[in-house]
Amino acid sequence: MLMVSTGNKAVAIAVKQVKPEVIAAYPITPQTEIVEQIAEYVTTGELKSRYIPVESEHSAMAACIGASITGARTFTATSSHGLLYMHEMTNWAAGARVPIVMANVNRALGPGWNIWAEHTDSIQERDTGWLQVYVSTVQEAYDTTLMAFRIAEHDDVLLPVMVNLDGFALSHIMQSLETIDLGDFIPPLHLPHAIDPKNPMGYGTLTGPDEYFKFRWEIERSMRDSMKIIQATEKEYAERFGRTYGFTEDYRCDDAKVVIVSMGTLGKEAEVSVDVLRKEGIKAGSMRLRWFRPFPKLDFGSKDVVVIDRDYSFGFGGVLANSIRAKCGIPVYSVIAGLGGQEVTYDDIAGFVRDRRIGDELWFGVEPNV
């Protein structure tokens, strides 16, 4: 079915089709539309799920964990400070190996209070054991939410997945959306370590030094194994439904001399800047990183690399830029831009490329720069 939808509604439509048994919800701008739309589906009977309106984001994640550990399929959504409030429980979810799917609508952190797009909220969750994917269109938000359930629930993964979409720049924008007949694409969930409420048992939760590290390794092993599951899932999705995705979305990179790397909606803006630069004789390309965890293998060869971070680790630098430096062993030109919804146009991005100084860091809009 073809329609016009916001990014938030696209996520809600995908959730309705997957039919999770439990949805825990707490509102926060600019995510609220997701759980409101799902609540409407439950109220009208279009979605027969247990909808739990909890008192906080911490409780939302706790409720999902409690339901998921019994083998129920679960979903929640949040943003910004709500995600931070969940932090204790996001670690717990990964450690318990429960395949929760959560939409996070990326928003800046306060103070000063700001409700516009920034990636720092989800980036701060990068080491918890959650898979993280960043989308750039309404269609991609829908497709990726569907695939997230299949990936999270695969026996070789069994880790939670966070689908990230930029606040307002994508959550509230209207674009075309083509939904699918899901069919048997997502099989029933079978959690091998599910607790059976009909057969109650006592569980000891203290793990000693001789065993704890093995649990940590199992999370890492599953994170590595998830790469082939992501590839297989996206390949089958393309074969069945005609839309192709990957760890990155590359635009005119094959013969490029300089590649712009970004995440989220800035990746689409970067594609326009590539066309502008090409007309000037600058062989530019754009690589939009979709999957941040697991972090994919990237090969830039001898190309210059300009990385745009919509986040910052104080005293360290742009997290994406430094991740590429560490994983690829190459110098990059690091640009910090778009924080708190700061406007970044394709002309601005083209300027980053023209003025690049590999090895340096630029804070867009700050004078003087370092």
Written description of the protein model:
- The protein has about 375 residues and is α/β, with parallel strands linked by helices.
- It folds into two domains: about 1-240, Thiamin diphosphate (ThDP)-binding fold, Pyr/PP domains (Rossmann fold); about 250-365, Rossmann fold, CATH 3.40.50.920.
- About 35% of the residues lie in helices and about 20% in strands.
- The chain has eleven helices and 15 strands.
- The chain has a seven-stranded mixed beta sheet with strand order 3-2-4-5-7-6-12, with helices on both faces. The protein has a six-stranded mixed beta sheet with strand order 9-11-10-13-14-15, with helices on both faces.
- Helix 9 (about 265-280) links the parallel strand 10 and strand 11.
- Helix 1 (about 5-20) crosses helix 2 and helix 3 runs parallel beside helix 5 (about 85-95).
- The longest helix has 30 residues, at about 210-240.
- It is globular and about 70 Å long.
- The model has no long low-confidence stretch (mean pLDDT about 95).
> Considering DSSP H and I runs of 4 or more, what fraction of the residues is helical?
25-40%
Any low-confidence stretches, pLDDT <50, length ≥5?
none
- CATH homologous superfamily assignment of the largest domain: Thiamin diphosphate (ThDP)-binding fold, Pyr/PP domains
CATH topology description of the largest domain: Rossmann fold
Compute the number of helices. 11
The backbone outline, from C-alpha atoms, is: globular
* Biggest β-sheet description: 7 strands, mixed
Give, in spatial order, the strands making up the sheet with the most strands.
Answer: 3-2-4-5-7-6-12
Radius of gyration: 20 Å
CATH class division of the largest domain: Alpha Beta
Distance between the termini: 50 Å
Task: Note the run of SSEs as H and E.
Answer: EHEHEHEHHEHEHEEHEEHEEEHEHE
As a percent range, the share of strand residues is 15-25%
Structural class: alpha/beta
Mean pLDDT: 97
Instruction: Tell how many strands the DSSP assignment holds.
Output: 15
Which architecture of the largest domain per CATH? 3-Layer(aba) Sandwich
